[in-house]
Amino acid sequence: MVTRAKLMTVLVGASLGIMSGSTPSRADLVLTAAGTTDGFTLASFMTGIPATSGTPSNGCCGPLGIATNSAGQVVFQVYGVGNFMVSDVNGQTFNPATQTSSLTSTSYGMAITNSGGTLYTGNDGAGGVLQKLNSNGTLNSTVATTPSSGIAGHGITTNPVSGNIFASSYNGIWNINPTTGAATQVVNSGGAVDGVSMSADGKIVYGAANGYVYGWNSSTGAQVFVSQYLGSPDGTGVITGSSKYAGDIISNDNDGTVWLIDSTTGIATEIASGGTRGDYVGLDGNNGNLFLTQTNEIFTLGCGQGCGFVGTPAVPEPSTWAMLILGFAGVGFMAYRRKSMAALMAA
Prior knowledge:
By secondary structure, the protein is mainly beta. The protein folds into 2 domains: 4-315, TolB, C-terminal domain (Neuraminidase, 6 Propeller), CATH 2.120.10; 320-347. It has 3 helices and 27 strands. The longest helix has 29 residues, at 318-346. It is globular and about 45 Å long. The protein starts with a helix and ends with a helix.
């Protein structure tokens, strides 16, 4: 169980690390041998993103919250600067001209999620609120203000079943109806939770704290899962689809590593390393990949055919594509045949 004492110790340690860390050198996140063997892919989405002047010297923070809008464009935040909107193409170099909004938070960025085609973000700097965004990342309206502790903005996800928003706070996780604004605290962890994600059935909400990734029942708040000790887990995502890893969790860690966590045993396998400060993750609704933010870069993580991440479409197997193509061809042939028969009868 996550205790208040444990989490307060972690929060104090994290604060000390932020104040005393040294500036990192440029590093590139790469797959480990295990990550390659397990069928993961890793590509650079964007480089050259500035870590804001005056931010802590350990490299936090540059790119943070990230998601795709209903048009398939990528909206992401640069800490202390605001939101940007770009096309969903790998290999980009940061262009400040793509900024759409100066909306930001004073508390290390705003996580972003898509629910029903609409973007939402937690904003601690605005008083711990859930905000609705326009498709380009500009502010639309404030949806909910939690009664206490505030929405920290460090972790947010959409329940894939109900469409409700699950957001982190300084004492746990809140369940928020984005239509009515009704907010209910479902996890009372006694301290901050980071990197919120959910299982495909919406029954388990995951979050990082105290060097571990925990899972809680999304209705009762009871702890139902804990990973092995990872050291500095942050953003998390859950695998879905027909892959053998369906249900397992990905953790993007502050120490520049990425882990695959078995959702049954809690055992973790390092699938990528060599990065800078791993932080947020985001869902790419166009292809089922997972965005991974680093100090100055954003990467995309893929998990192979028939595999995606909860909140995104799973990529069909090659055989599925073949069946779809044959199905469309069959429909077209039947329509042509009916049209030809109708013409003969009319004649």
